């Protein structure tokens, strides 16, 4: 098992800001306390010291080749979550209604979220590499009846 670190602000914030700025202008900070701690193949433990409410998106991919590019992995995960926009009902922007097919997208663009922390792990099992990404969002989004992001 090899741990890849995604502690720097650039990969985590760039992809999330690009996604969130497509719908609303906001500030998003990288939070050390929101970074998940991952152990490949052995479960998931999340370190959340100061967050009152936390949302989370998970992403998994597999390949016969090992990926060393943390930025590309994190960007692929955020792009995957954002791709759910095609199924998002715009009537939910002002009064959110949860849908399983768009919950990742709505968490990425949730307007009240101010901090994001992401972690990833890559491990090899039977000649196959599995990469898991977890991003924590504080405060949490996807609140039924809440406003996803401000509109004009």
Structure write-up:
It is found in: Secreted. By secondary structure, the chain is α+β, with helices and mostly antiparallel strands. It is built from three helices and seven strands, in the order βαββββααββ. Strands 1, 2, 5, 6 and 7 form a five-stranded mixed sheet that branches. Helix 1 (9-21) runs parallel beside helix 2. The longest helix is centred in the first third of the chain and has 13 residues, at 9-21. The protein is elongated, with a radius of gyration of 15 Å. The N and C termini lie far apart (48 Å). 31% of the residues are buried.
CATH architecture term: 3-Layer(aba) Sandwich
Regions with pLDDT < 50 over 5+ consecutive residues?
Answer: 1-11, 39-48
Work out the count of structural domains. 1
The portion of residues assigned to helices is: 10-25%
The rounded distance between the terminal residues' Cα atoms is: 48 Å
Describe the global form: elongated
The CATH fourth-level homologous superfamily: CAP
Mean pLDDT: 77
Number of helices: 3
Q: Looking at CATH, which topology would you report?
A: Pathogenesis-related Protein p14a
The CATH class turns out to be Alpha Beta
Largest sheet: 5 strands, mixed
**What is the succession of H and E elements?**
EHEEEEHHEE
What percentage of the residues does DSSP assign to strands (E)?
A: 25-35%
- Write down how many β-strands occur, each being a DSSP E stretch of 2 or more residues: 7
């Amino acid at each position: 098992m090899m741990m890849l670190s995604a502690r720097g602000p650039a990969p985590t914030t760039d992809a999330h800001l690009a996604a969130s700025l497509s719908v609303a202008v906001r500030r998003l900070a990288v939070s050390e306390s929101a970074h998940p701690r991952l152990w490949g193949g052995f479960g998931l433990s999340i370190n959340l010291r100061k967050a009152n409410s936390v949302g989370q998106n998970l992403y998994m991919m597999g390949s016969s080749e090992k990926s060393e590019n943390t930025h590309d992995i994190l960007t692929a995960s955020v792009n995957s979550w954002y791709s759910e926009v095609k199924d998002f009902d715009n009537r939910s922007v002002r009064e959110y209604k949860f849908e399983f097919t768009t919950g990742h997208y709505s968490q990425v663009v949730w307007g009240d979220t101010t901090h994001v922390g992401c972690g990833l792990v890559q491990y090899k099992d039977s000649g196959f590499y599995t990469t898991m990404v977890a991003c924590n969002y504080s405060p949490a989004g996807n609140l039924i009846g809440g406003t996803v992001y401000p509109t004009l």
